[in-house]
Amino acid sequence: MSADKNQRGKNLQTLEIIQFIADDVEVECRAVENVVRLLTNDNTVAFIARYRRHETGNLEAQKIRMIQESLEQVKAVESRKDSVIKSIGEKITPDIRQSLKYARSLQEVEDIYSPFKPGSKGTLANRARNLGLDKAAELISRDSNIENLSAFVQPGKKGLSSNAEVTKGVQHIIADKISKDKLACNLLKSMFENSRITLETKVREEFEKETKYKDYHQSSFSVKQVKSHQILAINRAEGEKILQVKLNCPQNLERIFLHQAERQHILISNRSS
Asked: Which residue range or ranges hold the Tex-like protein N-terminal domain (predicted)?
């Protein structure tokens, strides 16, 4: 009975993935299911487009490649979910598990995992903590007067030798706290969702004749509308140094976020104290 239940769960998950890819690339589920099966059996995009048209509904190679890219994205997300679940271990709750189940991007998974990240000993924030600057960060949260930090200066000690070094260490700690706070992350998401932010791509001159990423040689996308397979392709092309990628944000967005983050950090400190 347990085996049957697990199999039904896997089948349901597969159907959800097929539906997600179908919505992502705007292709019928049956065609996506067949393409995924053919790709899983090591058939190439060119072979499927030429010899399996009856199974794909006559999809062109470009659409099949989009399905392939979306599938790769899904696999990467599912793999990361497994790693996160193992890392959280016994601390995981039903709500966290449910949130991970419905996460469809690596960023969503990382946002869920953020409060549980142990943090590398070598991070700038942890180096500052090892210098005893946690208390300084708490003080600056309650009183932004920079002179309050002078008591933490220790001439000759790296990281504490000047007011500027102490200030920088405190900034690393505060930034680390904000980046792991759910309310602060939700604030940033809300600002992005309500702002006009675009992603621009431009091919480098030496690759103008390249055709694999021709759809992105000179393009602009709203971050609200860009598809997961497009992000995957853009990231890959940028990694191969074929594309130049730029994120355009409204000029006042940084100012608004810094103001809100400062207020938010005071709330974070009060919740943790």
From this structure: 16-88
